[in-house]
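Continuing the batch. This is chain 6 of the set; chains 1 through 5 are on the previous pages. Same settings as before, nothing changed between runs. Recording input and output for traceability.
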Amino acid sequence: MTEPYFSGRFGPLIRLSVSILVVLVVLALWGHAIWVASSPFLIALVLAYMLHPVTVFLQRRCCRGRRLPAVILLYVLVLVVVIPIVAILIVGMVGELVGLYNNLPAYWENVKSLCGAVLDHLPPLPETFVSRIRSAREELDRILRDPEKLRQFWEETLAPMLAPQAAASGETPTVQEVVREVSATGVGRRVTDGVGGFLSGMTATIRYVVGKLIGWMGGAVAFTTNLILVVVILFYFLLDFEKLGAAIPKFIPPGAREDFLRIWGAIDRQLAGFLRGQITIAICVGILSAILYSIAGVDSGILIGLFAGACNIIPYLGPIMGLIPAVGSTVVEQYAFGLGAVAWQLFWVGIVYATVQMLDGFVISPRVMSEAVHLHPMVILFALMLGGSLGGMLGMLIAVPAACVVRVLVQELYLKPMET
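Output for chain 6:
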């Protein structure tokens, strides 16, 4: 039997280091191409991980333990139930976007009126500053309204300033002299260059818009192609998901296989409980918020509700982030009808927000997250702050799942060995 490469005491460490180095070199050379080619597979793998429990439920309850009919039934349910709901939401969102675009002038007037009302309640400016501004405005008005003042301003101030060489003779420069000296100083050339630059800028803008439209069309085609690929790849991942899970331990050395399976099982329970639970709660909260905001008469209720549901993926901070656009939209929309209308609509927004949060806290979350292992609120807040400082919104989205993984690793690799 031949000796393996890098045998000896440090052989496993050397093999691991060489493997990591090879992976890093490959990613550095062909990372972008690998990402483009593998992104549909990664998306399909994540979706398969999320939908695997649903497939198992259908397999046991409806398909007599057969996997293929369960996957087909899942696709049929998506076509029959999920796609019509998504289509209705998209139609409502498009209608609200069109209404928002049509009402933008009215909303802008409301914003200006609101800003004016706020400015009226601010402390007054110093009287000396106000008097100087007022006197300068009055002087400018007198010059523009009085022909004699305007002629005097031209002869004594503007013409000598524009044509100093002609003014050196002691007489008021003529219009021709002013034009000649202005052209000689390069201002005329700058004006011509400015006009030419404006025209060339317009041409570049048209080219940019046309290029963007072509790019969007190409992006739509690429998105459709990737969507079809994800649907097809997802079918095969769901069909063989259990086989994929059973094949992973084969790549782990036999001596570490038992520990790996124990740690991976704990991580899987944490991630599955949190990710599936949070996404399910976000969907329920988003649809419920969209329905209740629309019933309460809030314009763009579907958009605001779905935004609130998407923000609900982030624990604690998400519900507050979803409330902000509802309050801002209500103030802007209802200000033209008076402060009473604003207060009344804000009352209904508060009722909707409180109702959704109560249903989430007492009905939805306990049922959905009953099997999930919860983290301490302080740990979640620290993870959110750290993720936000490191990666912004994306960092906040992955902060809590990362905290779940770190918690499992600390327990399995550090705390339990210390107890034994």
